[in-house]
Design a protein that fits this description.
The structure is a single chain. About 30% of the residues lie in helices and about 15% in strands. It is an alpha/beta fold. Helix 5 crosses helix 7. The chain is globular and about 60 Å long. The model has no long low-confidence stretch (mean pLDDT about 90).
Length: about 240
């Protein structure tokens, strides 16, 4: 109908351009939130000539990317229609699935019955079980983890069950197996959007996460735009 032969969709997770009206409902109280603008400010301006010509600087003030009088592309800010604050929810909506019920979050940690069953099934006790920054919690609990062999379980403002482990203490395959167990457990009442493996390496005082992170998201609850395209014989590729 529109003569479009190819669509390239690039998702830059967490690159926000301002708070939405319902931000306070999800613990984001600061109305100045604007990752793109603040990142540009922090580095003294961005050099994004092509995106600027398409209209990036017309969306919001971005240092180094001024608005242009006649953008070559359509531009704008979209407000999420789904309920919740999670990467999975946003990705589903981009693909045409709007969620009316937010995923549960666990700001006080996961219920003891969940933790107890998880410990029994993986054959190890756990450390943590609270909301934390992933880089901070491995510094706080990393030494104890190495000494005991207990994996570190934590969550965040998102609906996630994260498991961190030093690769010399719990090999990657075992960490991934533990994530698959958690993914199998966390359904129904406790259905988190993602279980995430967070391997790390290093010595005390200089622990760092590796690129061998692995996510275990829920599958979409229905057909997405990609499914409809495939059904229509249009090739789709995900990277």
């Amino acid at each position: 109908m529109y003569g479009i032969e190819r669509v390239i969709l690039i998702v830059l997770d967490s690159l926000g351009v301002g708070a939405l009206p319902d931000a306070a409902e999800y613990g984001d109280q600061d109305p100045r939130s604007n990752t793109l603008a603040h990142t540009a400010e922090a580095v003294g301006g961005l050099d994004l000539e092509n995106l600027g010509q398409l209209g990036l600087g017309n969306i919001a003030p971005v240092e180094g990317v001024p608005p242009v009088p006649q953008p070559e592309g359509a531009y704008g800010r979209m407000a999420e229609g789904s309920k919740g604050k999670d990467t999975t929810t946003g990705h589903w909506e981009i693909a045409g699935l709007c969620s009316t019920t937010p995923f549960p979050t666990y700001p006080q940690g996961f219920p003891q019955e969940i933790i107890q069953e998880f410990e029994e099934r993986i054959g190890r006790q756990i450390l943590g079980n609270y909301a934390a920054s992933g880089t901070v919690i491995i510094q706080d609990l990393g030494d104890e983890h190495v000494r005991t062999g207990y994996p570190i379980v934590y969550t965040s403002a998102d609906s996630v069950f994260q498991i961190a482990a030093h690769t010399d203490v719990i090999p990657l395959d075992e960490l991934y197996d533990a994530c698959e167990i958690a993914r199998e457990m966390l359904h129904g009442e406790w259905e988190v959007a993602r279980v995430i493996a967070r391997p790390f390496v290093g010595e005390a005082g200089s622990l760092k996460r590796t690129y061998e992170r692995k996510d275990y998201p829920l599958p979409p609850p229905g057909p997405t735009a990609l499914d409809h395209l495939q059904d229509a014989g249009v090739e789709t590729i995900g990277v």
